[in-house]
Design brief:
By secondary structure, the chain is an alpha/beta fold. Helices cover 42% and strands 12% of the residues. It is built from 17 helices and 13 strands. It binds uridine-5'-diphosphate. Uridine-5'-diphosphate binds next to α2, α12 and α13. It comes from Panicum virgatum. One of its GO terms (molecular function) is quercetin 3-O-glucosyltransferase activity.
Length: 467
């Protein structure tokens, strides 16, 4: 017999909808959170701009359904905003999001209700403050997913509330200190908060989000309780009191094979065959190098990096995005053939988890930072801007997992790689990395601190939806 509609609706799992800022460093943690929440029984929809949907589908090699919806085998549904052309410059994108985003997002939320799956909770990114306003207008509670560290959250919070004055950028000796954090200099502060920041619109969006963050019912953070205990413990003592941070990370793909979904989150098709190349290398021999999805090195820096990596004499796997490949020195690929591999995009977590990988020369984006922590791979930290400087400081000085590279000169690259792989402190760095890896994996394992936080969040969303 047919189930009466009222009964069917009562039995349906509550619907959680995530709306994601269009950047690789946001898509990865949000999609991974989506998968974890879906695995705990909620109906979950991942949404972003239509252009993100098209890229996800193309990179995953799956057919795009209506409106560019990737059709995966996984539990997460995909639906994208009908938002028109976002343009490619960061400022154009921010303006586009602010004008086209709110009406398109409101329409998407209403469509869910009309089609019988009303949204019980929206998860928003910190770079789109308007999304929580739209959700509030529809009477839907929101959770923020903070995709950077708790330390960076504290720096932003203190700055936005006028609770800290950062030292001048031209005074490298001057120090300041926040509760639960070590003494820092201006070089450790996220660059968006410093007077020299050129990305004003992006900084404005994050700052606006911070001013209104109390409106969110939950602030989930991609970190884990054991990684940043002092800052998490200190924040409730700050006045005005910040919202409670709920660490749910590291948001990494859980074990391979457990993945039931071919939509991994890549916006560029990954060179999965580089894993076979890694298989052919000796254990703990390969230098993996990547500056993530946004940082652009100058032609001179690319050339220096190329000579530096080649001069280590070690095998290396280097991510050089297509726009940067023309800056490789002439004949470089032939000269390193067999020992060095260059790919446009790597399956990074698989690379870091591979036994042949010895160290990670990284720009220290927070996802890369957590992924190398989870994999237990020591680093050569090469931060450029944003929160990367804070993360590099954290990886090298607080976690003891590697060395700093300052400037892309070839000798400096070679020396830093040697120090991380074979220098007098390399053994200690590897031991620290392995300890942090064990702690990270324990946090996301069933019953671990982050797993318990995800479960409590899911239970509360369900309770509110039913209550
Ligand atoms: N990534 C990847 N393949 C690459 C380079 C990066 O899969 O060749 C992924 C990486 O695993 C991480 C994300 O892209 O999850 C980059 O995020 P991150 O916060 O490290 O840096 P961003 O790109 O935002 O600067």
């Amino acid at each position: 017999a047919a189930v009466p509609p009222a009964v069917a609706a009562a039995a349906a799992p509550p619907h959680l909808l995530l709306i994601c800022f269009p950047g690789q460093g946001h898509v990865n943690p949000m999609l991974r959170l989506a998968k974890r929440v879906a695995a705990k029984g909620l109906l979950v929809t991942f949404s972003s701009l239509a252009s993100v949907g098209a890229r996800l589908a193309a990179a995953a090699g799956v057919s795009a359904g209506g409106d560019g919806v990737p059709v995966g085998r996984g539990r997460v549904r995909f639906e994208f905003l009908e938002d028109g052309d976002p343009g490619s410059h960061l400022d154009d994108l921010m303006r586009h999001l602010e004008t086209a985003g709110p009406p398109a997002f409101a329409a998407l939320l209403r469509r869910q209700a009309e089609e019988g799956r009303p949204v019980a909770c929206v998860v928003v990114n910190p770079f789109m403050p308007w999304a929580s306003d739209v959700a509030a207008g529809e009477g839907i509670p929101t959770a923020v997913l903070w995709v950077q560290s708790c330390a960076v959250f504290s720096l932003y919070y203190h700055h936005v509330h006028g609770l800290v004055e950062f030292p001048p950028e031209d005074d490298p000796e001057a120090r300041f200190q926040l509760p639960g954090l070590p003494e820092m200099s201006a070089a450790d502060v996220p660059s968006f908060l410093l007077p020299s920041n050129p990305f004003k619109l992006l900084a404005d969006a994050i700052i606006t989000q911070f001013r209104t963050i109390e409106r969110a019912s939950w602030v989930l953070v991609n970190s884990f309780a054991e990684l940043e205990p002092d800052v998490v413990a200190a924040l409730p003592g700050v006045t005005p009191r910040p919202p409670e941070l709920i660490p749910v990370g590291p948001l990494i793909e859980l074990q391979q094979g457990q993945e039931d979904d071919e939509v991994r989150g890549d916006l560029i098709k990954a060179a999965d065959d580089c894993v076979e190349w890694l298989d052919a290398q000796p254990p703990r021999s390969v230098v993996y190098a990547s500056v993530g999805s946004v940082v652009v090195l100058s032609p001179g820096e690319v050339a220096e990096m190329a000579h530096g990596l080649a001069s280590t004499g070690r095998p290396f796997l280097w991510v050089v995005r297509p726009d940067t490949q023309p800056h490789l020195p002439e004949g470089f690929l032939d000269s390193v053939s067999g020992r060095g591999a260059v790919v446009a995009w790597s399956p990074q977590e698989r690379v870091l988890a591979h036994p042949s990988t010895a160290c990670f020369l990284t720009h220290c984006g927070w996802n890369s930072t957590l992924e190398t922590v989870a994999a237990g791979v020591p680093v050569v930290a090469f931060p450029q801007w944003g929160d990367q400087c804070t993360d590099a400081r954290f990886l090298v000085e607080e976690l003891g997992m590697g060395v700093r590279l300052r400037g892309a000169r070839r000798e400096a690259v070679r020396e830093a790689v040697e120090a991380a792989v074979a220098g007098p402190c390399a053994g200690d760095m590897l031991a620290s990395a392995r300890r942090w890896s064990a702690a990270a994996r324990a946090a996301v394992a069933p019953g671990g601190s982050s797993d318990a936080h995800v479960q409590a969040f899911v239970d509360e969303v369900a309770r509110r939806a039913r209550g």
